[in-house]
Amino acid sequence: MPRLCFLVAYDGRPYQGWQSQVHGKTVQDYLEKAIASLIKEPIRIHGSGRTDTGVHATGQVFHADIPDQITLPCSNWPQAINTRLPDSIRVLHTRLADQDFHARFSAIGKTYRYSITKSKILSPFAAGLTWHRPKTFDVELLSQAIAAYSGTHDFRSFAALRGNEPSPIPSDYFIRTITKAELVEIGDDLTITLSGSGFLYKMVRLMVGGAFEVARKQTSWSQFMQLLNEPNAHTKSPLCAPADGLTLHHVHYDKDPFAE
After folding, report:
1. Topology adopted by domain 108-250
2. Would you call 254 a catalytic residue per the annotation?
3. pLDDT (tens digit, 9 = 90+) per residue, 80-118?
4. What's the pTM?
5. Which of 52, 98, 154, 188 is catalytic?
6. Which parts of the chain fold into alpha helices (H)?
């Protein structure tokens, strides 16, 4: 069975996240239904990771093993699937993958972007796609706090638990390496980019929220650094930023499956 790799983008607002659920209202559920309609049999797809309810993606990756009798060229798969999908989900590219490729386990890192706008009035075209924060906060402090995440840290103060963690939790479970942490400001719009070896449940939103509390001076710099450098089970980021502004931008692999 040939293994195909897919690049997909979606507006997360209508869906209960990526991961398939019984009610069938997730991105994975819609994609599996669309592909099953195309190949005339049930199929299971495997994503690079979960995104939560309301979180968006421009670079989610998944793979699927396709029955041998399906001879549709890779270049025709996006259009064939997209005609069976809601407008808020789009397959962008399809490539033939090696048999040992796995969308999740072959990934070596991810890049997320988080959007904030300071605009006094939120554009109706940005609603649900950015975090609206029109009240005054210190952008320079926010930038410094975001930059502090660079490097290898124990991020237990910036992570939530799903309930399916290993028991006991390994000592290095919360350790992650952030390779890029930066803020770019253009007019009223701020974009935070975070790249790393991996991200824990709600980690990006807790990182953004924790940094934002520093920027509006509700958390002191020393308190923030204690969360980052002296984490424990009883200290948590004081704020989880909403899903609206978060987008899975890119999944990194040793060999980019979509490189021309």
Report:
1. Alpha-Beta Plaits (3.30.70)
2. no
3. 999 999 999 999 999 999 999 999 999 999 999 999 999
4. 0.94
5. 52
6. 27-39, 77-82, 139-147, 203-215, 221-229
